[in-house]
Automatic annotation (TrEMBL):
CDD domains: catalase_clade_2 (cd08155), GATase1_catalase (cd03132)
Family annotation (SUPFAM superfamilies): Class I glutamine amidotransferase-like, Heme-dependent catalase-like
Domain Catalase core: 29-417
Protein's job: Decomposes hydrogen peroxide into water and oxygen; serves to protect cells from the toxic effects of hydrogen peroxide.
Name of the protein in its database record: Catalase
Ranges of Basic and acidic residues composition bias in the record: 14-26
Length: 679
């Protein structure tokens, strides 16, 4: 791209165009462009003789295959991504000089990678884990990376402990188990002996760690950053992504079953949503604290194990990101994308959060290992949309062909170019924070409160969410073999909630905590998913139909579709069903290829007198009921719900009147889960 090119919503797409290749209809060649006459047989000395070393085509093809895999990320290995664009609602010039946060007329291209943390690249996606939510903004001033998670806090306060955390969280080295799970001794031993993890563990044991989809989970920058305006005035900031569809989760039994039925569940959901035009949307929110108010809170605002309660520091919604294009190639884009919290633009700077400070080193270091050298910024997915010029040269995978004899600064042979840009013209200058202190290995006394915000989180949960926390601790610690570790965790979380610790202590045959309940009574309603947005849009309903179908069913599905609800028909065989009025329904799933856990709701129509069909249908219904999902029944399905004694239960909608049924079923789907149901 020339220096004169302007950045817009399509510019990154246009830039990538030169790297895209469509081989359909083309002739086979080597990587050097030589046309290949034979690709089935290697070159041999006679039909039954040895393969010859001179077979350059075989050697090129096999060598490339042998090197197709690059080292997977140590954490966040299992990921999926999409392209999008960001639009600003209002100028933030009062707080920052970052151009993409000032000009409301621009659409900034983005690339977002979602991921699990603990598992390998081939692990399942619905495991209990934190999720990565990393966003690359391709701005006119350079790439800005907001590298966050779906949980606003972290396990540790200082980056020097990160290798210890990951070693404890990963499969145990003596037997390489368990994969993508925290239900084992070394993780909980780390937790019990590093009690700063208490708050993050509460989030990890909550519903937030098993999101319904990438489209329905929040994103957080985790750390405290700085915004700096044109006058050099700074504010502390935390970044939030708020999903327009609300924040929703799976239930644990459902999450485990999906891991077996469809380990690609989350990436499939994201891919299909974009392909269907149901573009995921997230609003960008900022929590902003003036520098002079840094010490006005009952927590240290630089502590990465602490959040800023939204009731104390409101979230200012400033823009929206829409993911509107799937990747063309997962390896070239999703796997090779390189994020770094140190990729900033003028107007965004760092705080002294010790975990953030360590990440500023670690991310470059890991990209050097994964991507083979210092030129990872030249890969198409990582290239800025603005021009870049410097005196860096050579190295593995260098794409740029630099001309001229000069590659140093200062110089006279090239009129001292490339030359620095003054701050007034957009050059990046670090915020001039005054620093005064002795060199010390330690942390502030204000970082030593490990339990009050963990209790705040507990206090903020609804009763169903509290029960899920009790169940999660009971499950995870029930897998721990060491009785000592189990007891240490019980004693630790007695400092958070005696009620919680007593519940899982009894479940694992440990001694309940002997202390009193925490004196912390504060809560934050924003932390409970009970208070999230509830919408029927993009919800997927499994529709069970037999061979005899009323034409009214097609009308019902069309009306549901007008509310954004996607109906997919299930039967004993694939194909098409003709209704009694001549319309057709496509059967997309059978009882063998589908399961209730991949749907948000079940609508049973019936239309078969086969006993096995009815048995399979009721299995779907009963499992969905146990997962608190909406259930609808009309026609023969209504009779089946009556026989199962489910009609009248919360979230179970039945009726013969089409309009009333659709209205009530849509409302039930909007609620997402019916926790007041007795299961």
């Amino acid at each position: 791209m020339s220096d004169q090119n302007k950045v817009n919503g399509n510019s990154k797409n246009e830039q990538l165009e030169q790297y895209r290749a469509d081989d359909k209809g083309k002739k086979l060649t080597t990587n050097q462009g030589l046309k290949v006459a034979e690709d089935e047989f290697s070159l041999k000395a006679g039909e039954r003789g040895p393969t010859l070393m001179e077979d350059f085509h075989f050697r090129e093809k096999m060598t490339h295959f042998d090197h197709e895999r690059i080292p997977e990320r140590i954490v966040h290995a299992r990921g999926f991504a999409a392209h999008g664009e960001f639009e600003l609602y209002e100028s933030l010039s009062e707080f920052t000089k970052a151009d993409f946060l000032n000009d409301t007329s621009k659409k900034t291209p983005t690339f977002v990678r979602f991921s699990t943390v603990a598992g390998s690249r081939g692990s399942a996606e619905t495991v209990r884990d934190a999720r990565g939510f990393a966003t690359k903004f391709y701005t006119e001033e350079g790439n800005y990376d907001l590298v966050g998670n779906n949980i606003p806090v972290f396990f540790i306060q200082d980056a020097i402990k990160f290798p210890d955390l990951v070693h404890a969280l990963k499969p145990e080295p003596h037997n390489e188990m368990p994969q993508a799970a925290s239900a084992h001794d070394t993780f909980w031993d780390f937790v019990a002996n590093n009690q700063e993890s208490a708050h993050m563990v509460m989030w990890a044991m909550s519903d937030r760690a098993i999101p319904r989809s990438f489209r329905m989970m929040e994103g957080f920058g985790v750390h405290t950053f700085r915004l700096v305006n044109d006058e050099g005035k700074a504010h502390f900031v935390k970044f939030h992504w708020k999903p327009v569809l609300g924040t929703h989760s799976l239930v644990w039994d459902e999450a485990q079953k999906i891991s077996g039925k469809d380990p690609d569940f989350h990436r499939r959901d994201l891919w299909e949503s974009i392909e269907n035009g149901d573009y995921p949307e997230y609003e960008l929110g900022l929590q902003i604290i003036a520098e002079e108010d840094e010490f006005n809170f009952d927590f240290d605002i630089l502590d990465p194990t602490k959040l800023w309660p939204e009731e104390d520091v409101p979230v200012k919604i400033v823009g929206k990101m829409t993911l509107n294009r799937n990747v063309d190639n997962v390896f070239a884009e999703t796997e090779q994308v390189a994020f770094h919290p140190g990729h900033v633009v003028p107007g965004i700077d760092f705080s002294n959060d010790p975990l953030l400070q360590g990440r500023l080193f670690s991310y470059t270091d890991t990209q050097l290992s994964r991507l083979g050298g210092p030129n990872f910024h030249e890969l198409p997915i990582n290239r800025p949309v603005c021009p870049f010029h410097n005196n860096q040269r050579d190295g593995i995978s260098r794409h740029t062909i630099n001309r001229g004899q000069v590659s140093y600064h200062k110089n006279s042979l090239a009129a001292n170019t490339p030359s620095p840009t003054p701050e007034a013209e957009g050059g990046y200058v670090h915020y001039q924070e005054k620093v005064d202190g002795r060199k010390i290995r330690g942390r502030s006394e204000s970082f030593k409160d490990h339990f009050s915000q963990a209790t705040l989180f507990w206090n903020s949960m609804s009763e169903p969410e509290k029960q899920h926390l009790k169940n999660a601790f009971s499950f995870e610690l029930g897998k721990v073999k060491s009785k000592s570790v189990q007891q240490q965790v019980v004693d630790m979380f007695g400092n958070v909630s005696v009620e919680l610790a007593t519940a899982f202590a009894e479940a694992i045959d440990a001694v309940p905590p002997q202390g009193e309940e925490s004196s912390v009574t504060k809560s934050s309603p924003a932390l409970s998913q009970l208070n999230t947005v509830k919408s029927p849009k993009t919800r997927k309903v499994g529709v069970i139909v037999g061979s005899i179908v009323s034409g009214e069913v097609a009308d019902i599905l069309q009306t549901l579709k007008s509310s954004g609800i996607q109906g997919e028909c299930i039967s004993d065989k694939l194909g098409r069903r003709t209704t009694d009025d001549g319309s057709e329904l496509e059967i997309m799933h059978t009882f063998l290829t589908a399961t209730s856990v991949i749907f948000d709701a079940i609508y049973v129509v019936g239309g078969s007198d086969d006993a096995t069909f009815k048995k399979n249908a009721l299995h779907f219904v009963n499992e969905a009921y146990a997962h608190y999902k909406p259930i609808g029944g009309t026609h023969e399905g209504l009779q089946w719900l009556n026989e199962a004694e489910l009609t009248g239960e919360p979230g179970v909608v039945s009726g013969d009147g089409k309009d009333d049924f659709v209205k009530n079923f849509t409302e039930a789907i909007s609620v997402h889960r019916h926790w007041n149901r007795q299961v």
